[in-house]
Design a protein that fits this description.
79% helix; transmembrane; 409 residues; transport; Growth Hormone, Chain: A
Length: 409
């Protein structure tokens, strides 16, 4: 039986164009902001429930594993049933997860909330990314690159501020998130559908990673820098508060959130600032900048220098933003309209494996070897990945130049 496109009724009229892209970007920011919101709270959870550093990374890791499961199962679903129904379902599940956070009183509830949150975010990211590319093909890769990075930074910093200065430090941030999610659900319900219904929705639920043949080489070249930037993000979002306390001597929740914000805020600015630079050149900027930033950050951690530590986070953030954007812009334009959600899922599968698995390993190692030693080893591994990314990108650039010269001859 062949799979053919099945045209649905014409999409109903609704929010479209620039307004739709803005709403989708804001929703993506909220999802990723919610994922980082618990980061400044980990110290409070550790104190209240006696959690070890390794437990913190496990709590962080189960979120990413839930996200990966959702990407593998429903990552291509919006290519078949439409973007809007998948996104509305994801928002509903995210609201449930935030409600569990709000009521959490022990580690079990916290883990359950993180698993649900991962499933919701995984379902949302591929659908939102594909929808943004539908309504804004030119700016889509920029938005899908900047919004997650900005969301994580704003989520960590905003949560830290609420935890430190507002009442109900373990509850208020989750109440704010529920309000945002409800408002965005109303907006998404009014969106004009951008994807035609196609047969094969049930078959699309079979776990798979879908990289179109024409995108495989670019994906291979982009992989090292993508792994490096997300592994750094996972480390700072799980063990960052403990490392910040060690360097600064401050136990303030805002300090831990500030470290994540320094990384992701600089990353978001780099994505916007480099949006008109060719993708390969952006990756060539990102890899060495990431490596340099990690060296500075490690020096700050080693010598207890607050200035070096935060400067390293900012420089690393520039490398993160450039590396992630360059990778995304190198890979995603190679997908056809009905391949976008599948390729976006594959890209995020790689990203979130890099986000969770190294961080979990680092947390377990920290219990045995100490945070400083693990930070140094982790940083060296990321520098090696950045060097591999630089070499691969240079090779791809030279190959393209040679191909272009051959055609000209």
């Amino acid at each position: 039986m062949t799979t053919t496109a099945v045209r649905s009724a014409p999409p109903r009229r609704g929010v479209a164009g620039a307004s739709a892209a803005a709403l989708l970007a804001a929703t993506l920011v909220t999802f990723l902001g919610a994922s980082a919101a618990p980061t400044p709270l980990y110290a409070l959870y550790q104190e209240a429930w006696g959690m070890a550093p390794s437990t913190t990374t496990v709590v962080f890791g189960v979120y990413a594993l839930g996200l990966l499961a959702a990407l593998l199962v429903v990552g291509r679903l919006s290519d078949h049933i439409g973007r809007r129904p998948v996104l509305l379902g994801a928002i509903a599940l995210e609201a449930v997860s935030v409600a569990v956070f709000l009521a959490a009183g022990d580690l079990t509830a916290l883990i359950a909330a993180r698993v649900l949150q991962g499933l919701a975010t995984g379902a949302a990211t591929a659908a939102i990314g594909a929808a943004i590319l539908d309504v804004a093909p030119t700016l889509g890769p920029i938005i899908t690159g900047a919004a997650p990075v900005a969301g994580m930074g704003l989520g960590a910093l905003g949560s830290g501020a609420l935890v430190q200065f507002a009442p109900a430090p373990m509850r208020l941030v989750y109440a704010v998130l529920i309000v945002l999610l409800v408002a965005e659900a109303v907006g998404v319900a009014r969106l004009a559908e951008t994807a035609e219904r196609r047969a094969g929705a049930v078959a699309s639920l079979r776990p798979t990673v879908s990289v179109p043949p024409q995108a495989r080489r670019a994906m291979l070249v982009a992989a090292p820098i993508d792994i490096a930037v997300w592994a750094l993000g996972g480390f700072l979002m799980s063990l960052g508060p403990a490392l910040t306390t060690q360097v600064t001597g401050s136990h303030a929740p805002l300090a831990g959130g500030a470290t994540v914000f320094a990384l992701t805020g600089a990353g978001a600015l780099a994505i916007v600032g480099l949006r008109t630079v060719p993708a390969v050149r952006v990756m060539l900027i990102g890899a060495p900048t990431l490596a340099a930033g990690i060296v500075i950050l490690l020096a700050g951690a080693q010598f207890g220098s607050v200035v070096l530590f935060f400067a390293g986070a900012v420089v690393s953030g520039v490398g993160w933003g450039a590396g992630f954007q360059g990778a995304l812009r190198t890979v995603m334009p190679l997908a056809g309209p009905n391949e976008r959600a599948g390729l976006m899922s594959a890209f995020y599968v790689l990203s979130y494996l890099a986000l969770c698995l190294p961080a979990i390993a680092a947390g377990i190692a920290t219990d045995r070897f100490g945070l400083t030693a693990v930070t140094d080893a982790y940083g060296v591994a990321l520098i090696v990945l950045a060097a591999l990314a630089m070499a691969g990108t240079l090779a791809m650039s030279r190959a393209r130049t040679a191909t272009a010269a051959g055609r000209a001859d």
